Sequence to fold (234 residues):
Amino acid sequence: MKNLQEEEQVMLQNESGIFTAPLQRRSFLQYAGAGAAGIALVAAGCKKDKDYVGSGVNLGSGDIGILNYAYALEQLEAAFYTAVVQSQYELITANELALLTDIRDHELAHREFFKKALGTAAIPALEVDFTSINFRSRIDVLGTAKVFEDLGVAAYNGAGKLIKSADYLLLAGKIVSVEARHAALIRDLISNGTFADSTVVDANGLDVAFPPAKVLGMAQSFLKTSIIGSNLPS
Fold:
């Protein structure tokens, strides 16, 4: 137990370095291996949480299940923005391409961080289904990006109360703030000034929060892999 506590202290110290620096893929991944060490120690004892059930993938339970939940969403976002940058919708401007490339790099960094952190407890790579998206259409791409970013923010907000580890909660808070920056940017690319309208921010100035069941139900339409979150805390 003493070694585990020491490793978790190292993890927390390293993570503070990750998130106080500018969030660029290269600098993020430079520290991801060290930051993942503490989580990996816990995850090693939870390998059973990534068992397959039928044709689906079980996210697991407890904090490891929540981390896999976040990892699944980051996989989806990383795959989407990779396709966006590769396809480049018609009449895309240099500024828009640069912004979308930055978002892609952030999502790739998030995905790789969770993958390294979870170690053997990580769910496998998910198979996406983007057949409903016209990647040559600016309206389709930005509209889908808005769905993903708003959903990601609501997912992290909703999962916060389910996380027992203070270290993991801190990590989630640092990531959701980046996702919120993405959401605001995408919304303003679609229609300037809509970055925090009443569809996502309530009268108390609070952003929306969705439980995992609702988030997974919405995300499943973009996945060929079936995700099972029935063992997640609620």
